[in-house]
Structures are given as structure tokens and as C-alpha cells.
Write a structure and sequence with these properties.
About 40% of the residues lie in helices and about 20% in strands. The protein is of the alpha+beta class.
């Protein structure tokens, strides 16, 4: 049900295509533009973390600024991310042994290679979702909820997340799975995801939604990392709010309330970046050097020489 959204062009020949779907909604959540299937249930993956963060804030999570951004993050595993995770756990009188996300390498290749060179191994703190997990544990402590079962779908924390996701997306959750970090993963459609980003980023945001959006906009490196495309996009377009997710999911909201959500079927980030930037520039009219840079960033090389690039497969 998806359609070609990006072509891989090498030496003037289309050698491959990426399929996907995308949608743009206005400030009232009405669909303005779409391509592919945008109404079928899909897993938003980490693009749902702002909604999970909202559920925690509504249940007393007192984090602000960079630590609130980290609670919604898929972080790169840089030193300041790890320090933030420890700060959240310390506030809850817990340590890293309470984290139930799996041990992993940092997402950032530089950080990962540094660990490998030092002979160090994976830890749960390096796992990109450890900020969310530490915030989940803190929320449980504040409410007197069991911290050993915080990942079960029937846990009060996860019930709160479910209710919040349904409210913000305006859609009933059809499927509950397990995300890569072990937390419950709750479905929506691309339309629902776009509507959620519209609410967080736009003028209709309530005080708690705005607190999350403001924390992320002010500290985008805590949501991603210093070398991540999602971070650079928010730094380049100040009113923009964005969260990437596994399997090339992307949610983006603008300050005027318009929003974009997309998914690339094969999970290719090179297509995610090109498709998102093309829509921002050509459908939503965002003028930015960073958007233009990322649109042109997915180059192909042969023998160390530039021979092609990934381009949008649709016109608007």
C-alpha cells in the first residue's frame, strides 16, 4: 500500500527505489497532502516518545529543560546523555540496575568506536532509550507504582501512556507490541502521528505539551545527539519540533501547527531524510539552508568520487 517515494540514482541510472507513505496536516489536524497509505495502523516507534513523555509529566514527572528532552530521547550515548540518565535515576533514588532496557552500544559511531578501542562493552545506559526508561522509573517512584513491572502493558504507567496516545492522536490503539527497548509499543496511523506533532508544536499546545516542546527545541542535542540529522534540523529551523524513530519513521511539527509524518517501508534513513526535507521544502514551504543541505546530503560514491544521489520520487 506504500508507493515509491525516493529513487537511488547512480551515474544517471535509477538502480533502486524506496517505498513509503507520508502525510501533512494543518493546525486543525486536517489532511492537506499525502502520498501512499496514511490511514492504516503502524508502529510509530520512537516518534511516540513525546506522547509517552506527556503521560509522565501529567503524572507528576518534574523534569525540566535538558532532562525533560532526554526523557523523550533516542540519544546517541554521548557523555552528557549518560550524565543526564544518572541525574534522573539519582533523583528517584535508583541506580542503573533498575533500568530494564537492554544493554547496547551507543547509537553514535564515534562513541561506539571509542568504547571498542578502550575494550569496554555494552551497558543499558548506552542504550538510546535509557533516558525514557529512567524517566519512567522516576514517574513510578513518585506515584508509588511498582518499578519491577513498569514495562508491562497493564502497569499504571503504560495505561497512562495508552490513554495519552489515544487522546493526542485522536485514534484508538489497535495493536500493542514490544519496542526495541522492551517498552510497550502502541500503534497509530501516520495521520494520527502527524496530528500529535501538530498539537505539540503548534499554538494549540497545552501547558504540559508546550513544556515538552520548549525543552526539546532548547536542547535538541539531548533528544538526539551532536552529530544527528534530527538535531541539526531543529537547530536549523528554530520553530520546528522533530522526532525520528526506528524503521525510518519521522514526525515533524512546525510552530504554526502544520505537521508531517512519514514512514519508509524498508527502514532506510537515507530515504527518510530526503523525503522529509523534500516535503518540508516543497509542500510546506520551509525555507532553510539546513533543509536544503539535508535534501542534498544523501550522495552516492564510486571510487571515492560523487556519482549520484538519493532523490524524491514524487512531484508536488
Amino acid at each position: 500500500m506504500s508507493v515509491p517515494v525516493a529513487y537511488v540514482v547512480r551515474s544517471g541510472l535509477v538502480e533502486g527505489a524506496h517505498f513509503g507513505s507520508a502525510v501533512v496536516v494543518d493546525a486543525q489536524g486536517k489532511v492537506e497532502w499525502s502520498i501512499g497509505d496514511v490511514s492504516t495502523a503502524m508502529f510509530p516507534r520512537s516518534s511516540s516518545k513525546l506522547m509517552q513523555g506527556l503521560a509522565m509529566v501529567r503524572n507528576g514527572l518534574p523534569l525540566k529543560d535538558e532532562l525533560l528532552a532526554l526523557a523523550c530521547a533516542s540519544h546517541s550515548g554521548e557523555d552528557f546523555h549518560l550524565a543526564g540518565v544518572e541525574d534522573i535515576l539519582n533523583a528517584a533514588n535508583l541506580d542503573t540496575s533498575a533500568l530494564q532496557c537492554p544493554a547496547d552500544w551507543p547509537l553514535d559511531e564515534v562513541e561506539r568506536d571509542t568504547l571498542l578501542a578502550a575494550g569496554l562493552g555494552k551497558t543499558s545506559s548506552y542504550m538510546n532509550c535509557s533516558g525514557k526508561h529512567s524517566a519512567m522509573l522516576f514517574t513510578c517512584v513518585l506515584n508509588g507504582w511498582d518499578t519491577n513491572t513498569y514495562l508491562k502493558p497493564t502497569h499504571p504507567l503504560q495505561i497512562a501512556c495508552k490513554e495519552t496516545i489515544e487522546e493526542v492522536t485522536g485514534q484508538t490503539i489497535e495493536h500493542i507490541g514490544v519496542d526495541g527497548c522492551g517498552a510497550p509499543l502502541m500503534s497509530t496511523s501516520l495521520v494520527g502521528l502527524a496530528r500529535a506533532f501538530s498539537k505539540f508544536a503548534g499554538p494549540s499546545a497545552d501547558s504540559k505539551q508546550k513544556s515538552i516542546a520548549d525543552a526539546i527545541r532548547a536542547n535538541p542535542q539531548y533528544l538526539g545527539g551532536t552529530r544527528r540529522d534530527v538535531t541539526k534540523l531543529m537547530q536549523g529551523v528554530p520553530s520546528l519540533l522533530a522526532k525520528d524513530g526506528a524503521e525510518a519513521v519521522y514526525g515533524i511539527g512546525l510552530g504554526d501547527g502544520r505537521a508531517l509524518a512519514l514512514k519508509i517501508e524498508d527502514g532506510a534513513d537515507r530515504a527518510r531524510i530526503v523525503v522529509a526535507m523534500s516535503i518540508l521544502q516543497n509542500v510546506m514551504g520551509v525555507v532553510s539552508q539546513e533543509v536544503e543541505r539535508q535534501l542534498e546530503s544523501q550522495e552516492l560514491f564510486g571510487g571515492g568520487v560523487h556519482v549520484g544521489k538519493v532523490i524524491p520520487a514524487f512531484s508536488v
